[in-house]
Model the fold of this input.
Amino acid sequence: MSYLGILLLIILAVLISFVWTQFVGAPWVPSSTKTVRTMLTMAKVKPGELVYDLGCGDGRIIIMAARHFGALAVGIEIDPLRYLWSQIRIRFLGLSDRVSIKYGNFYKYDLSQADVITCYLLQDTNKKIATKLNRELKPRARVVSNTFTFPTLSLLQKNKELGIFIYKKKNGNRV
Ligand SMILES: C[S@@+](CC[C@H](N)C(=O)[O-])C[C@H]1O[C@@H](n2cnc3c(N)ncnc32)[C@H](O)[C@@H]1O
Done:
């Protein structure tokens, strides 16, 4: 392949990751390791619980949920390159029996089996997905959001320093 071909591929990848994804939910910006650990700790993720990351990026949240918290984890990712990269990481780390990645739009997936939902999206996207979360989630399920809030869910806890918010659905039970 020529240099021009490689350059065009790189430009396409950047456009998909940082421009197109913004219109379907959020661009790729990874959560820091400290934030991921705090999100999962605040959500009190227990061994065997099912964690979903909406827009899993490179898979860092679901990988930590499985490796350090003993959870079963599912990531949903719409960017084909991030989807492939997270699949490779999970296989390489030997986590395929506990972690899976679904390709596509998280609005289209059933979230009713989740014990914990994690996300790092945008304020408008949270607003759109909140209706689905209030409709589908189990009463005891926790929603953990990095940076952006969910005004129509019930706030359980927040970490101001890191900007982490824990919610349950409206009329859900306390953890
Ligand atoms: C800010 S990044 C967060 C990545 C990861 N959750 C983390 O915290 O490190 C948002 C991710 O959501 C993905 N995304 C955006 N809209 C989406 C949608 N509608 N369905 C599935 N994934 C989406 C993006 O491609 C991106 O990887």
